[in-house]
Amino acid sequence: MAGIYVHIPFCKTICGYCDFFRSANLAHREPYIQALHRELDAACQYLPEREIRTVYFGGGTPSTIAPERYTELIEHMGRVYDLSHVEEITLEANPDDLSDDYLTRLADTPINRLSVGIQSLHDDELKFMNRRHTAKQARKAIETAQNRGFDNISIDLIYGLPCSSTERWSKNLQHAVSMGVQHISAYHLGIEPHTRFGTLHDKGELMPVDEEVSHEQFRILREILLQNGFEHYEISNFALPDRRSRHNSSYWNDTPYLGLGAGAHSFDGASRRWAVGNLPRYLRESGTDAIYTTERLTADERYNEYIMTRLRTCEGVNTEELRRKFGAQKLLNFERRCRPFLEQKQLQNTAGHTFITADNLLISDSIICELFVG
Which end of the chain is more exposed for a tag (fewer CB within 10 A), N or C? Predict the structure, then answer.
């Protein structure tokens, strides 16, 4: 089966760390929804498998859009693709948007999973990141969502904040667990170019935390969540039993997906395409091929993506699957490149699965790059 991702770029304010395609011009919301409908019609033949398993509304801030608009989009998807097997429809949301009225209306839509951008449960840390909600609003939003029947809730948290401490990070996690959510995504703060944090870093006014602090906070993250029944199934993602993100998991196992919206990416199994990250042009040209750039992946690129995505997960690389997909020579090459990392206990091989050991997940990128070909 396949998935559909819909990018909603609108934000009331821009966070200091965000480098996603986004827009603070909320006046374009209604024209944008109409442009999504046009693109959906034009993309009716994109997916090689037309049965859809998951739908994900990401952003930006999808909760800036009225719930009724999502019902209309999902009904339109059902006219274009087969939604009879959909298991999960996720909406990303900011806590301050999740009023009782909004959640009551959202409960009348087909959306059955929320991903709430809490980031921190300390007000000074939220202010540092230019988040517009408070810790109290975050806790209230989760409680209200649960009272409105949402029983599959994920929250985002950020660690590695220069304004914070390891002790405060531990308290963030304890508060998060106490809210009774089913899934937690925890990301290390990135200081990216063309963001407010990137500008401050260039001026020498904002520096990343020490590597030792990052590793200690990652260790605490695993310790607290594993003690509370969460499984660590992907580098940044933890879930209670049977509550993994089905949509995001599809990105790590080669499942085709259709991306709709400005800046959204799609994958059909052999090539990728992405829509222009320019709002006026997207509004003007949506529904035509002019908005897309397409890249057909070479055999080596497909192999490298396989290695990269599989090693992000707790299952790692299934060596028999690798041989079946890419041939015996690629498997021999993989095993040869893995040898020094196995000797250093940065990789482990168990029952035909090669995976990054827990203590080395935070440096996974450097390990994975050494296993690439080409």
Answer: C
* Residues forming CATH 1.10.10 domain(s) in the chain: 299-369
The burial class, CB within 10 Å (0-12 / 13-18 / 19+), for 217 is: buried
Q: What tens digit of pLDDT does each residue of 323-332 get?
A: 999 999 999 9
Strands 237-239 vs 231-234: parallel, antiparallel or unpaired: antiparallel
Give, for 32, the enclosing helix (H) or strand (E): helix 29-42
- For 58, list phi and psi in degrees, rounded to 5: -120, 175
**Which DSSP state fits 19?**
-
- 220 class by beta-carbon count within 10 Å (0-12 exposed, 13-18 middle, 19+ buried): middle
Separation in Å, CA 224 to CA 122, 230, 338 = 18, 9, 30
Nearest partner of 15 among 137, 136, 125, 114, judged by Cα: 125
3-class DSSP assignment, residue 262: coil
Residues of the chain within CATH 3.80.30.20 domain(s) are 2-251
Residue 339 exposed, middle or buried by CB count within 10 Å (0-12, 13-18, 19+):
exposed
Give the model's pLDDT for residue 50.
Answer: 79
DSSP 352-374: TEEEE-GGGGGGHHHHHHTT---
Inform me whether the pLDDT recorded for 338 exceeds 90: yes
Share of the chain above pLDDT 90, in %: 91
Mean pLDDT over 306-314 rounds to: 96
Look at residue 234 and tell me whether its pLDDT is greater than 80. yes
pLDDT of 32-44, one tens digit each? 999 999 999 999 9
pLDDT tens column, 139-158: 999 999 999 999 999 999 99
Q: Which long-range contacts (CB under 8 A, 24 or more apart) does 146-151 make?
A: 146/180, 148/100, 148/103, 148/104, 148/106, 148/107, 149/107, 150/103, 150/107, 150/112, 150/113, 150/114, 151/182
Q: Which CATH class is domain 299-369?
A: mainly alpha
Report the alpha-carbon distance of residue 83 to residue 88 in Å, rounded: 11
Give the confidence band of 352 by pLDDT, cuts at 50, 70, 90: very high
In the chain, the amino acid numbered 73 is L
Sign, CA torsion 232/114/111/22? negative
